[in-house]
Amino acid sequence: MMRSLLTALLALGLASCADMNKVVSGVASVANATGYMPYSSEIGSAMRATTAVAKTMEDITPAQEYYIGRTVSAGIVNRYPVKANPAANNYLNLLGQVLVMASDKPSTYKGYHFLLLDTDEVVAFAAPSGFVFVSKGMVRLCKNEDDLAAVLAHEIGHVQKSHALAAISTSRITSALTVIASEGTQAVVGGYVGELTRLFEGSIDDITQTLVNSGYARGQENEADATAIKIMQRVGYDPSALIRVLETMKVKVQPGATGFTSTHPAADDRIADIRPLLPQSLMAMAANANRDKRFGEMLSAL
Fold this sequence. Notes:
By secondary structure, the protein is mainly alpha-helical. The chain has helices at residues 2-15, 30-34, 40-49, 53-58, 62-79, 86-101, 136-141, 145-160, 170-183, 186-189, 193-214, 218-235, 241-252, 260-263, 267-274, 289-300, and strands at residues 113-117, 124-127, 131-135. The protein contains 16 helices and 3 strands. Strands 1-3-2 form a 3-stranded mixed sheet, with helices on both faces. A hairpin with a 3-residue loop joins strand 2 (124-127) and strand 3 (131-135).
């Protein structure tokens, strides 16, 4: 019951986002497709849920996470233009999908999607449900395919750990459920739609602000780094490439610059946290002509 109620609320909130149609079509039809009207028993469930917000967050379904992710992605591509190069994006997706299959969350609702952003800013984002964005500035900073794999694996780690969803202020969920519980059906079909829409749009803003401006906590970044190392080992990429990328950032990215350095812990701190996670004995990675060729073609497309 609670899940169907959340589905209806998410449909109302997400369908109202004006920017959504710039990325995908049809999301606005979700509200009509649900055809949902809450019954009194579900209103009672919502009232009880206001005292158990953590449980409510757990009840967000994969489909709901997907629509949240698409809406967050709309905000990202409104800020950064998409690189219109099918070959480059195809390469990014092939590499990303290989890494995803080696993760502990190899599938999401409608799958992972990787997209190249047409900006020299060094940025990478992962929206809920597996929408991963990497800038051409980030790609150019990488020395080889292993480096780029490290960047993508780190973002996959954020998806696997549901870090973006954790950015939603629990007070917004509490407020939305309180409106439903106190006003009943009128909250959905009457004058309270605007309030619910505002609350869920605010949830999208919470996630976007975390991804683009404030960044994750150091503990969350550590989790994503640890996940990236495991993924890379499973696929056969050099896990120390993650350190190499951070070392390159220290040299090429100016302190105080916007983008990756402004939303992530200091490179030296991350490197110190990563080193103990690397295998005790790393085998030297032999040159791979196919990888070098693929990566070189990617760079030439930028």
